[in-house]
Specification:
Length: 308
């Protein structure tokens, strides 16, 4: 079996782009590790860069399958384009289809799909200055982030805002640099947990849950921002399983499976949730923070080929 590894190579820094513009693109070491893992399964892997020429390389390459971790280029539909081209060419591929990839990269759209079945934090989508007065309706503090990006791109310590004025200022900063709408979400104090899910249809299952915690008492709210991720060995501690009662872990796992079902994801996915206390109701609740396809990781796992 001849398998294309469809990916976006990480280029040299572009002086005209934010320093995290290519955060999700992959290094030669990552692609080499995937190729070695696939070769160990008895297939013939071939890296294929997802550039403007890749549709022709896929069509002419005689590939039987595509291992798709391409991030694409552009805005909210960028992850969907490589998958759509594979589908158009009739080549089966790993991961979710174009519709799901487009919906989940757009945080506002993903929230609307899963809510109210899955709890989400209060939020406002700020597309321009005319939306800024609506920020006063939120409870503060908030987190201000690019609406259609992943891997914490655009999320910095300054994304934690304590007032509508500072949130509006951050919205303008992000729109100037990332040229997309900005999502302003109420900050949920509490434990952050990632849920890993695999499978399709009736065979979908929860792989496990992982707590993402600060390394030591930082004396400030913990925000899993881009700087923290880059320095995770020093700033982060991961706990498997999370340090929560079993009933709370069950709730988080249930929400993750609901998200995957409503977003129609395939093969392997992850959901990140915040476990927090709603003081007025005096109960614990986990709320969706982010859902995404696990791709472009330095820590690699081998996944079975999926339905696509």
């Amino acid at each position: 079996m001849r398998v294309a590894i469809l990916f976006n190579p990480r280029p040299d820094d572009d002086a005209g782009a934010p320093d995290d513009a290519f955060e999700e693109y992959d290094t030669p070491e990552t692609i080499g590790a995937i190729a070695n893992a696939l070769a160990g399964m008895g297939v013939d892997p071939m890296p294929v860069a997802a550039d403007a020429e890749f549709p022709w390389r896929l069509k002419q390459g005689g590939f039987d399958f595509v291992f798709n971790i391409a991030e694409g280029a552009g805005r909210r539909c960028r992850e969907a384009i490589p998958a759509a081209i594979c589908e158009f060419l009739g080549i089966p591929f790993t991961g979710s289809d174009a519709l799901t990839l487009a919906a989940t990269l757009d945080k506002w759209v993903a929230r609307r799909i899963v809510s109210p079945d899955v709890p989400v934090a209060g939020a406002i989508l700020v597309e321009g200055p005319a939306d800024e007065p609506r920020l006063r309706a939120l409870s503060y503090p908030v987190v201000v982030k690019p609406n259609d990006e992943g891997s914490s791109k655009g999320i910095r310590p300054e994304s934690w805002c304590a007032s509508a004025g500072s949130a509006a200022e951050r919205c303008r900063w992000l729109r100037d640099r990332y040229a997309c709408p900005v999502l302003v979400e109420e900050f949920l104090p509490g434990m952050e947990v990632t849920a890993a899910v695999r499978g399709n249809g009736d065979d979908i299952s929860l792989i496990g849950l992982m707590e993402i915690a600060p390394a030591g008492d930082r004396g400030e709210p913990f925000l899993y921002c881009i700087e923290t991720k880059r320095d995770f060995r020093r700033q982060v501690r991961y706990h498997v399983p999370p340090r929560l009662p079993a009933t709370h872990l069950d709730d988080i796992g249930s929400h993750a499976l609901q998200c995957i079902d409503r977003l129609a994801r395939f093969d392997f996915s992850r959901c990140r949730e915040r476990h927090h206390v709603i003081a007025r109701l005096r109960r614990h609740q986990a709320s969706l923070v982010r859902t995404g396809l696990s791709s472009g990781n330095d820590a690699l796992e081998t996944h079975p080929f999926g339905r696509h």
